[in-house]
Amino acid sequence: MRLSSTPLLLTVFGAGLLTLTAQRLPDGQGFPAHPTPPPTLQDVPSNGLAMTPPMGWNSWNKFRSKVDDKAVREIADAMVKNGMKAAGYVYVNIDDTWQGQRDAQGNIQANSKFPDMKALAEYVHSKGLKIGIYSSPGPQTCAHYEGSYGHEQQDARTFAAWGFDYLKYDWCSAGKLYPHDAETLQAVYQRMGDALHESGRPILFSLCEYGLGDVWKWGPKVSGNAWRTTGDIRDTWASMSKIGFNQNELAPWAGPGHWNDPDMLEVGNGGMTDIEYRTHFSLWSMLAAPLLAGNDLRTVSPDILKILVNRDVIAIDQDRLGKQATRAWKSGDEEVWTRPLENGDIAVAFFNRGAASAKIAANWSDIGFKQKPKHARDLWRHKSVRLHRKEYSVTVPSHGVQMLRVKL
Ligand code: GLA
After folding, report:
1. The predicted structure's pLDDT at residue 13
2. How far apart are CA 171 and CA 174, in angstroms?
Protein backbone atom coordinates (compact mmCIF):
# COMPACT_ATOMS: atom_id res chain seq x y z
CA MET A 1 0.00 0.00 0.00
CA ARG A 2 1.43 3.40 -0.91
CA LEU A 3 0.36 6.65 0.62
CA SER A 4 1.03 10.01 -0.94
CA SER A 5 2.28 11.56 2.26
CA THR A 6 2.39 15.31 1.75
CA PRO A 7 -1.17 15.97 0.56
CA LEU A 8 -2.47 13.38 3.03
CA LEU A 9 -0.73 15.03 5.96
CA LEU A 10 -2.06 18.40 4.95
CA THR A 11 -5.56 17.00 4.64
CA VAL A 12 -5.43 15.26 7.96
CA PHE A 13 -3.83 18.16 9.79
CA GLY A 14 -6.34 20.50 8.17
CA ALA A 15 -9.26 18.27 9.19
CA GLY A 16 -8.93 19.43 12.76
CA LEU A 17 -9.47 23.15 12.13
CA LEU A 18 -12.48 23.84 14.26
CA THR A 19 -14.21 26.25 16.54
CA LEU A 20 -11.77 28.64 18.14
CA THR A 21 -11.71 28.30 21.92
CA ALA A 22 -9.50 29.89 24.55
CA GLN A 23 -7.19 26.87 24.55
CA ARG A 24 -6.66 26.66 20.82
CA LEU A 25 -3.09 27.69 20.06
CA PRO A 26 -1.96 30.04 17.31
CA ASP A 27 -0.45 28.00 14.49
CA GLY A 28 3.23 27.33 15.16
CA GLN A 29 3.20 28.18 18.89
CA GLY A 30 5.56 25.94 20.82
CA PHE A 31 7.46 24.86 17.70
CA PRO A 32 11.19 24.57 18.49
CA ALA A 33 13.82 25.76 16.05
CA HIS A 34 15.87 22.61 16.72
CA PRO A 35 13.67 19.64 17.66
CA THR A 36 15.05 17.09 20.16
CA PRO A 37 16.62 14.27 18.16
CA PRO A 38 14.48 11.12 18.37
CA PRO A 39 15.87 8.29 20.56
CA THR A 40 17.86 5.30 19.32
CA LEU A 41 15.56 2.46 18.28
CA GLN A 42 14.98 -0.14 20.96
CA ASP A 43 11.95 -2.39 21.42
CA VAL A 44 9.45 -1.30 24.08
CA PRO A 45 8.16 -4.24 26.18
CA SER A 46 4.67 -5.32 25.17
CA ASN A 47 1.92 -4.14 27.53
CA GLY A 48 -0.06 -7.38 27.11
CA LEU A 49 -3.26 -5.49 26.22
CA ALA A 50 -5.72 -5.85 23.31
CA MET A 51 -5.55 -9.60 22.82
CA THR A 52 -8.68 -8.97 20.76
CA PRO A 53 -9.37 -5.69 18.92
CA PRO A 54 -10.33 -2.81 21.24
CA MET A 55 -14.06 -2.03 21.48
CA GLY A 56 -15.63 1.15 22.73
CA TRP A 57 -16.60 4.66 21.70
CA ASN A 58 -14.67 7.74 20.58
CA SER A 59 -15.88 11.34 20.58
CA TRP A 60 -14.36 12.63 17.35
CA ASN A 61 -16.62 11.49 14.51
CA LYS A 62 -19.77 13.00 16.02
CA PHE A 63 -18.77 15.57 18.62
CA ARG A 64 -15.57 17.09 17.20
CA SER A 65 -14.73 20.02 19.55
CA LYS A 66 -18.10 19.79 21.33
CA VAL A 67 -17.08 16.91 23.58
CA ASP A 68 -17.17 17.70 27.31
CA ASP A 69 -17.32 16.06 30.73
CA LYS A 70 -21.12 15.85 30.70
CA ALA A 71 -21.27 14.19 27.28
CA VAL A 72 -18.64 11.61 28.26
CA ARG A 73 -20.54 10.69 31.44
CA GLU A 74 -23.81 10.46 29.53
CA ILE A 75 -22.23 8.27 26.86
CA ALA A 76 -20.88 5.93 29.57
CA ASP A 77 -24.36 5.78 31.13
CA ALA A 78 -25.90 5.06 27.73
CA MET A 79 -23.44 2.24 27.01
CA VAL A 80 -24.45 0.54 30.23
CA LYS A 81 -28.19 1.01 29.67
CA ASN A 82 -28.44 0.19 25.99
CA GLY A 83 -26.59 -3.15 26.12
CA MET A 84 -23.37 -2.03 24.45
CA LYS A 85 -21.31 -2.69 27.57
CA ALA A 86 -22.83 -6.18 27.79
CA ALA A 87 -22.01 -6.72 24.10
CA GLY A 88 -18.31 -6.04 24.78
CA TYR A 89 -17.79 -2.27 24.34
CA VAL A 90 -15.36 -1.14 27.04
CA TYR A 91 -13.46 2.06 26.23
CA VAL A 92 -14.98 5.55 26.39
CA ASN A 93 -12.43 7.67 24.56
CA ILE A 94 -12.03 11.42 24.58
CA ASP A 95 -10.44 12.61 21.33
CA ASP A 96 -8.92 16.01 20.51
CA THR A 97 -9.90 19.37 22.15
CA TRP A 98 -9.81 18.47 25.85
CA GLN A 99 -6.45 20.16 26.48
CA GLY A 100 -5.86 23.38 28.38
CA GLN A 101 -2.58 25.07 29.23
CA ARG A 102 0.37 23.66 31.11
CA ASP A 103 0.94 24.85 34.68
CA ALA A 104 4.20 26.42 35.87
CA GLN A 105 5.75 22.95 36.29
CA GLY A 106 4.76 21.98 32.77
CA ASN A 107 1.91 19.67 33.82
CA ILE A 108 -0.83 19.47 31.21
CA GLN A 109 -4.25 20.58 32.43
CA ALA A 110 -7.64 19.99 30.88
CA ASN A 111 -9.59 23.01 29.60
CA SER A 112 -12.86 24.29 31.02
CA LYS A 113 -14.91 21.58 29.27
CA PHE A 114 -13.31 19.02 31.62
CA PRO A 115 -13.24 20.40 35.18
CA ASP A 116 -11.82 17.25 36.81
CA MET A 117 -10.30 14.50 34.70
CA LYS A 118 -9.58 12.22 37.68
CA ALA A 119 -13.20 12.41 38.82
CA LEU A 120 -14.37 11.73 35.26
CA ALA A 121 -12.14 8.65 35.01
CA GLU A 122 -13.46 7.45 38.37
CA TYR A 123 -17.02 7.90 37.15
CA VAL A 124 -16.40 5.90 33.98
CA HIS A 125 -14.62 3.19 35.99
CA SER A 126 -17.54 3.05 38.42
CA LYS A 127 -19.69 1.98 35.47
CA GLY A 128 -17.37 -0.96 34.80
CA LEU A 129 -15.92 0.77 31.73
CA LYS A 130 -12.48 2.11 30.84
CA ILE A 131 -11.52 5.58 29.65
CA GLY A 132 -9.26 6.86 26.89
CA ILE A 133 -7.47 10.11 26.09
CA TYR A 134 -5.76 11.71 23.10
CA SER A 135 -2.48 13.52 22.45
CA SER A 136 0.17 14.15 19.80
CA PRO A 137 3.96 13.78 19.63
CA GLY A 138 3.96 17.27 18.10
CA PRO A 139 3.71 20.58 20.00
CA GLN A 140 0.10 20.88 18.78
CA THR A 141 -2.65 18.39 18.07
CA CYS A 142 -4.47 18.30 14.75
CA ALA A 143 -7.08 20.73 16.11
CA HIS A 144 -4.27 23.01 17.40
CA TYR A 145 -4.47 22.15 21.07
CA GLU A 146 -1.47 21.46 23.32
CA GLY A 147 0.48 18.33 22.29
CA SER A 148 2.96 16.22 24.26
CA TYR A 149 6.16 17.30 22.49
CA GLY A 150 8.93 17.68 25.10
CA HIS A 151 6.59 16.48 27.87
CA GLU A 152 6.14 12.83 26.93
CA GLN A 153 7.08 11.29 30.29
CA GLN A 154 5.30 13.96 32.25
CA ASP A 155 2.09 13.53 30.21
CA ALA A 156 2.20 9.73 30.44
CA ARG A 157 2.50 10.09 34.23
CA THR A 158 -0.40 12.55 34.28
CA PHE A 159 -2.62 10.29 32.17
CA ALA A 160 -1.77 7.38 34.49
CA ALA A 161 -2.42 9.48 37.61
CA TRP A 162 -5.79 10.60 36.24
CA GLY A 163 -6.64 6.92 35.67
CA PHE A 164 -6.66 6.69 31.87
CA ASP A 165 -6.52 3.28 30.22
CA TYR A 166 -6.03 4.16 26.55
CA LEU A 167 -4.03 6.74 24.61
CA LYS A 168 -4.59 7.68 20.98
CA TYR A 169 -1.38 9.36 19.86
CA ASP A 170 -1.84 11.43 16.72
CA TRP A 171 1.14 12.51 14.56
CA CYS A 172 -0.36 15.91 13.51
CA SER A 173 2.21 18.71 13.93
CA ALA A 174 5.08 16.29 14.63
CA GLY A 175 5.21 16.30 10.83
CA LYS A 176 6.47 19.89 11.01
CA LEU A 177 9.40 18.87 13.24
CA TYR A 178 10.43 15.51 11.88
CA PRO A 179 10.64 13.77 8.52
CA HIS A 180 8.18 10.90 8.22
CA ASP A 181 10.49 8.07 7.25
CA ALA A 182 9.81 4.79 9.05
CA GLU A 183 12.79 5.04 11.39
CA THR A 184 11.99 8.55 12.61
CA LEU A 185 8.33 7.73 13.08
CA GLN A 186 9.20 4.62 15.04
CA ALA A 187 11.60 6.55 17.26
CA VAL A 188 9.08 9.31 17.95
CA TYR A 189 6.37 6.78 18.87
CA GLN A 190 8.87 4.77 20.89
CA ARG A 191 9.41 7.81 23.11
CA MET A 192 5.75 7.69 24.20
CA GLY A 193 5.71 3.87 24.25
CA ASP A 194 8.57 4.00 26.78
CA ALA A 195 6.85 6.73 28.76
CA LEU A 196 3.63 4.71 29.02
CA HIS A 197 5.60 1.65 30.06
CA GLU A 198 7.43 3.65 32.74
CA SER A 199 4.15 5.11 34.00
CA GLY A 200 3.42 1.68 35.47
CA ARG A 201 -0.25 1.73 34.40
CA PRO A 202 -1.47 -0.58 31.62
CA ILE A 203 -2.47 1.95 28.95
CA LEU A 204 -3.55 0.72 25.52
CA PHE A 205 -1.41 2.52 22.94
CA SER A 206 -3.20 3.47 19.73
CA LEU A 207 -0.93 4.90 17.04
CA CYS A 208 -2.52 7.42 14.72
CA GLU A 209 -0.27 8.42 11.83
CA TYR A 210 -2.43 7.47 8.87
CA GLY A 211 -0.27 4.51 7.76
CA LEU A 212 2.93 6.53 7.23
CA GLY A 213 6.23 4.64 7.16
CA ASP A 214 4.45 1.27 6.93
CA VAL A 215 3.51 1.49 10.61
CA TRP A 216 2.24 -2.12 10.59
CA LYS A 217 5.88 -3.27 10.24
CA TRP A 218 7.14 -1.55 13.42
CA GLY A 219 4.01 -0.74 15.46
CA PRO A 220 4.44 -3.71 17.84
CA LYS A 221 8.06 -2.67 18.52
CA VAL A 222 6.89 0.56 20.15
CA SER A 223 4.22 -1.42 22.08
CA GLY A 224 1.49 -0.17 19.74
CA ASN A 225 -1.76 -2.08 20.19
CA ALA A 226 -3.38 -0.64 17.06
CA TRP A 227 -2.30 1.66 14.26
CA ARG A 228 -4.29 3.67 11.81
CA THR A 229 -3.69 2.44 8.27
CA THR A 230 -5.37 5.36 6.46
CA GLY A 231 -6.32 9.03 6.53
CA ASP A 232 -9.59 10.03 8.21
CA ILE A 233 -12.83 8.23 7.46
CA ARG A 234 -15.89 10.28 6.49
CA ASP A 235 -19.52 9.31 6.93
CA THR A 236 -20.05 8.37 3.28
CA TRP A 237 -20.24 5.12 1.35
CA ALA A 238 -17.39 6.31 -0.91
CA SER A 239 -15.01 7.00 1.98
CA MET A 240 -15.91 3.95 4.07
CA SER A 241 -15.82 1.46 1.20
CA LYS A 242 -12.60 2.86 -0.27
CA ILE A 243 -10.85 2.44 3.07
CA GLY A 244 -12.42 -0.89 4.04
CA PHE A 245 -11.92 -2.75 0.78
CA ASN A 246 -8.33 -1.49 0.53
CA GLN A 247 -7.05 -3.40 3.59
CA ASN A 248 -6.39 -6.78 1.96
CA GLU A 249 -2.59 -6.59 1.83
CA LEU A 250 -2.30 -5.59 5.47
CA ALA A 251 -3.85 -8.82 6.82
CA PRO A 252 -0.53 -10.48 7.75
CA TRP A 253 0.36 -7.66 10.15
CA ALA A 254 -2.65 -7.97 12.45
CA GLY A 255 -2.75 -10.34 15.40
CA PRO A 256 -3.46 -10.62 19.13
CA GLY A 257 -2.10 -7.51 20.86
CA HIS A 258 -1.60 -5.43 17.69
CA TRP A 259 -4.23 -4.54 15.11
CA ASN A 260 -4.62 -2.66 11.85
CA ASP A 261 -7.01 0.25 12.41
CA PRO A 262 -8.93 1.48 9.35
CA ASP A 263 -10.38 4.28 11.57
CA MET A 264 -13.42 4.60 13.79
CA LEU A 265 -16.98 3.62 12.99
CA GLU A 266 -19.40 6.05 11.37
CA VAL A 267 -22.39 3.74 12.02
CA GLY A 268 -25.38 5.86 12.98
CA ASN A 269 -24.01 9.27 12.01
CA GLY A 270 -26.55 9.71 9.23
CA GLY A 271 -24.51 9.80 6.03
CA MET A 272 -25.13 6.20 4.98
CA THR A 273 -28.14 3.89 4.78
CA ASP A 274 -28.69 1.13 7.31
CA ILE A 275 -27.68 -1.38 4.61
CA GLU A 276 -24.40 0.50 4.17
CA TYR A 277 -23.84 0.70 7.92
CA ARG A 278 -24.35 -3.09 8.16
CA THR A 279 -21.69 -3.47 5.46
CA HIS A 280 -19.39 -1.06 7.34
CA PHE A 281 -19.80 -3.03 10.59
CA SER A 282 -19.41 -6.40 8.84
CA LEU A 283 -16.30 -5.32 6.95
CA TRP A 284 -14.64 -3.86 10.06
CA SER A 285 -15.41 -7.09 11.93
CA MET A 286 -13.99 -9.22 9.12
CA LEU A 287 -10.89 -7.00 9.25
CA ALA A 288 -10.40 -7.55 13.02
CA ALA A 289 -10.55 -3.77 13.30
CA PRO A 290 -11.06 -1.86 16.52
CA LEU A 291 -14.81 -1.35 16.94
CA LEU A 292 -15.03 2.21 18.21
CA ALA A 293 -18.54 3.55 17.79
CA GLY A 294 -18.47 7.19 16.68
CA ASN A 295 -22.10 8.22 17.01
CA ASP A 296 -24.15 9.83 19.77
CA LEU A 297 -25.10 6.83 21.89
CA ARG A 298 -27.48 8.91 24.01
CA THR A 299 -29.90 9.18 21.13
CA VAL A 300 -29.09 6.07 19.09
CA SER A 301 -32.09 4.62 17.22
CA PRO A 302 -33.14 0.99 17.81
CA ASP A 303 -32.15 0.06 14.23
CA ILE A 304 -28.63 1.45 14.58
CA LEU A 305 -28.24 -0.09 18.03
CA LYS A 306 -29.16 -3.47 16.55
CA ILE A 307 -26.19 -3.11 14.20
CA LEU A 308 -23.77 -2.12 16.95
CA VAL A 309 -24.76 -4.94 19.30
CA ASN A 310 -25.00 -7.76 16.78
CA ARG A 311 -23.21 -10.38 18.86
CA ASP A 312 -22.80 -12.84 15.99
CA VAL A 313 -20.85 -10.24 14.02
CA ILE A 314 -18.96 -8.93 17.07
CA ALA A 315 -17.85 -12.54 17.76
CA ILE A 316 -16.12 -12.53 14.36
CA ASP A 317 -14.30 -9.28 15.14
CA GLN A 318 -13.33 -10.55 18.58
CA ASP A 319 -12.33 -14.05 17.51
CA ARG A 320 -9.29 -15.04 19.54
CA LEU A 321 -7.32 -16.46 16.64
CA GLY A 322 -6.96 -12.84 15.56
CA LYS A 323 -6.63 -13.49 11.82
CA GLN A 324 -7.71 -10.58 9.63
CA ALA A 325 -9.89 -11.45 6.62
CA THR A 326 -8.55 -11.48 3.08
CA ARG A 327 -10.29 -11.16 -0.28
CA ALA A 328 -11.00 -14.67 -1.57
CA TRP A 329 -12.85 -13.78 -4.77
CA LYS A 330 -13.81 -10.77 -6.84
CA SER A 331 -15.87 -10.26 -9.93
CA GLY A 332 -16.64 -6.66 -10.85
CA ASP A 333 -18.38 -5.08 -7.86
CA GLU A 334 -18.87 -8.41 -6.11
CA GLU A 335 -16.35 -9.51 -3.51
CA VAL A 336 -16.09 -12.44 -1.13
CA TRP A 337 -13.83 -12.13 1.92
CA THR A 338 -13.01 -14.98 4.30
CA ARG A 339 -11.53 -15.21 7.76
CA PRO A 340 -10.47 -18.35 9.67
CA LEU A 341 -11.74 -18.59 13.25
CA GLU A 342 -10.37 -20.15 16.43
CA ASN A 343 -12.80 -23.13 16.50
CA GLY A 344 -12.10 -24.08 12.87
CA ASP A 345 -15.14 -22.24 11.46
CA ILE A 346 -14.71 -19.71 8.67
CA ALA A 347 -16.39 -16.30 8.44
CA VAL A 348 -17.46 -15.54 4.87
CA ALA A 349 -18.79 -12.17 3.71
CA PHE A 350 -20.44 -11.65 0.32
CA PHE A 351 -20.27 -7.94 -0.53
CA ASN A 352 -22.05 -6.13 -3.35
CA ARG A 353 -20.31 -2.80 -3.96
CA GLY A 354 -22.42 -2.09 -7.04
CA ALA A 355 -25.28 0.37 -7.53
CA ALA A 356 -27.88 -2.37 -8.20
CA SER A 357 -28.91 -5.51 -6.39
CA ALA A 358 -26.86 -8.51 -7.57
CA LYS A 359 -26.90 -12.28 -7.40
CA ILE A 360 -23.48 -13.33 -6.18
CA ALA A 361 -22.72 -16.90 -7.22
CA ALA A 362 -19.44 -18.67 -6.53
CA ASN A 363 -18.27 -22.26 -6.24
CA TRP A 364 -17.08 -23.08 -2.75
CA SER A 365 -13.83 -24.23 -4.36
CA ASP A 366 -13.40 -20.77 -5.94
CA ILE A 367 -13.47 -19.09 -2.55
CA GLY A 368 -10.91 -21.38 -0.98
CA PHE A 369 -12.97 -24.33 0.33
CA LYS A 370 -11.90 -27.90 -0.39
CA GLN A 371 -15.44 -29.16 -0.09
CA LYS A 372 -18.96 -27.87 0.42
CA PRO A 373 -19.23 -26.83 4.09
CA LYS A 374 -21.59 -28.74 6.37
CA HIS A 375 -23.43 -25.83 7.85
CA ALA A 376 -23.70 -22.05 7.62
CA ARG A 377 -25.35 -19.42 9.80
CA ASP A 378 -26.43 -16.03 8.47
CA LEU A 379 -25.05 -13.53 10.98
CA TRP A 380 -27.55 -10.74 10.20
CA ARG A 381 -30.67 -12.90 9.86
CA HIS A 382 -29.55 -15.08 12.78
CA LYS A 383 -30.59 -18.34 11.16
CA SER A 384 -29.19 -21.36 9.30
CA VAL A 385 -28.65 -21.23 5.57
CA ARG A 386 -29.26 -24.25 3.35
CA LEU A 387 -26.22 -25.45 1.42
CA HIS A 388 -27.29 -27.73 -1.44
CA ARG A 389 -24.75 -27.52 -4.17
CA LYS A 390 -21.09 -26.99 -4.83
CA GLU A 391 -22.09 -23.49 -5.86
CA TYR A 392 -23.39 -20.94 -3.37
CA SER A 393 -25.51 -18.06 -4.55
CA VAL A 394 -27.17 -15.21 -2.75
CA THR A 395 -28.91 -12.03 -3.84
CA VAL A 396 -27.32 -9.05 -2.10
CA PRO A 397 -28.79 -5.54 -2.27
CA SER A 398 -26.74 -2.62 -3.59
CA HIS A 399 -23.95 -1.79 -1.08
CA GLY A 400 -25.11 -4.70 1.07
CA VAL A 401 -23.59 -7.83 2.53
CA GLN A 402 -24.44 -11.36 3.49
CA MET A 403 -22.22 -12.55 6.28
CA LEU A 404 -21.98 -16.25 7.14
CA ARG A 405 -20.28 -18.31 9.80
CA VAL A 406 -19.47 -21.59 8.09
CA LYS A 407 -18.73 -24.99 9.64
CA LEU A 408 -16.56 -27.33 7.59
C1 GLA B 1 -6.81 13.56 13.06
C2 GLA B 1 -7.17 12.10 13.37
C3 GLA B 1 -8.66 12.04 13.72
C4 GLA B 1 -8.96 12.94 14.91
C5 GLA B 1 -8.51 14.37 14.61
C6 GLA B 1 -8.61 15.27 15.82
O7 GLA B 1 -7.43 14.06 11.92
O8 GLA B 1 -6.87 11.28 12.29
O9 GLA B 1 -9.03 10.71 14.01
O10 GLA B 1 -8.31 12.44 16.05
O11 GLA B 1 -7.15 14.40 14.18
O12 GLA B 1 -8.14 16.55 15.58
Report:
1. 40
2. 5
